Amino acid sequence: MQTAPHLRLVLWKAAKAVEKVDRASISKTGLYLSDFAIMEVVLHKGPVPIKIIGEKVLLTSGSMTAAINRLEKKGFVKRIQDPSDGRCFYVHLTEIGRGVIEAAYAQHEKKLEKIAGVLTPEERAELVRLLKKLGKHAQEVITT
Domain containing 69: what range? Predict the structure, then answer.
């Protein structure tokens, strides 16, 4: 039987190894990690409020503002104010930005598929199921 500390160590090492490849792959796209993350959220979710993007990519309000400003200057995104709530701004990809993130994401996805290629489709499904189970239970433990 594997002990809980050993399980945590194996999980941590695997996550760090994947993260290393992930960061290297994203850096090859020519985008900052935060810029890639923001644009990837908008690519897959559509226009999203700045606050929600920050929560998804784990960036503070100040970091989000700096990143959105940087992306706007490059012409990759634009902010559009919510007509029903003037305090809320949605981030939209521009045509140029969409082309940049689609190409960058396709390149990045290939690298991630190379890592995941060691697993069969069944193993991938099982891994996702088990990680979700573990994560959900960890959240429950935190709150008790």
Answer: 24-118
